[in-house]
Write a structure and sequence with these properties.
The complex is a heterodimer. Chain A is mainly beta. Chain A contains no helices and eleven strands. Chain B is an all-beta fold. Chain B contains no helices and eleven strands. The chains are: A mainly beta, B mainly beta. Chains A and B meet through strand 5 and strand 10 of A and strand 5 and strand 9 of B.
Chain lengths: 111, 112
């Protein structure tokens, strides 16, 4: 049973546009919310993560927005580039403990 | 830097055959994990190990067994493979008290 719901399943964005992927979780004990990026034939790699003490975290063109009361968090990719084309997974869990992953979003950035 | 290494990368089995997927990490991490990735279902945890000699079930453990005899190795076994076990398997490791999971490149298993 999925405890982390991710949407959309797939996303096509024009180069330079903003990509937005949303996730919702159920377990209020979760206090760690990472996003992983996966290129074809490779394993997932950590992109950016947030703890619930802040509502937003930015690293370069990637931003996580976090809404604790709604139990939702999202990934924004600004100025999306063809090299950002990949599968993105959100995840949630208790920090240092096992993670529950969303179903994934396949992002394609058209040049 | 090898990180997390999985073998084999590809394997085809017939229904009922057995095999072991191997995972090795050189980062001295205490925790290790086995996930399976299926289209539309994300990454689902099969088994994990918080330390050498200990293992626990994840979300989808049925049909699998694991072994963590050495800190750097985590083995995933299929005793009697079924077509439903056709998937891409990922091993991951994590340091104590850390958040980041480090993944291997995956093992693609097909059961005919």
């Amino acid at each position: 049973q999925q405890q982390v719901k991710q949407s959309p399943q797939s996303l096509i964005v024009q180069k330079g546009g903003i990509s937005i992927i949303n996730c919702a979780y159920e377990n209020t004990a979760f206090d760690y919310f990472p996003w992983y990026q996966q290129f074809p034939g490779k394993g997932p790699a950590l992109l950016i993560a947030i703890r619930p003490d802040v509502s937003e975290k930015k690293e370069g063109r990637f931003t996580i927005s976090f809404n604790k009361s709604a139990k939702q968090f999202s990934l924004h990719i600004m100025d999306s580039q063809p090299g950002d084309s990949a599968t993105y997974f959100c995840a949630a869990g208790e920090y240092g403990n096992k993670l529950v992953f969303g179903a994934g979003t396949i992002l394609r950035v058209k040049s | 830097n090898a990180g997390v290494t999985q073998t084999p990368k590809f394997q085809v089995l017939k229904t009922g055959q057995s095999m072991t997927l191997q995972c090795a990490q050189d980062m001295n991490h205490n925790s290790m994990y086995w996930y399976r990735q299926d289209p539309g279902m994300g990454l689902r945890l099969i088994y994990y190990s918080a330390s050498e000699g200990t293992t626990d079930k994840g979300e989808v453990p049925d049909g699998y067994n694991v072994s963590r005899l050495k800190k750097q190795n985590f083995l995933l076994g299929l005793e009697s493979a079924a077509p439903s076990q056709t998937s891409v398997y990922f091993c991951a490791s994590r340091s104590v008290g850390a958040g980041e999971l480090f993944f291997g490149e995956g093992s693609r298993l097909t059961v005919l």
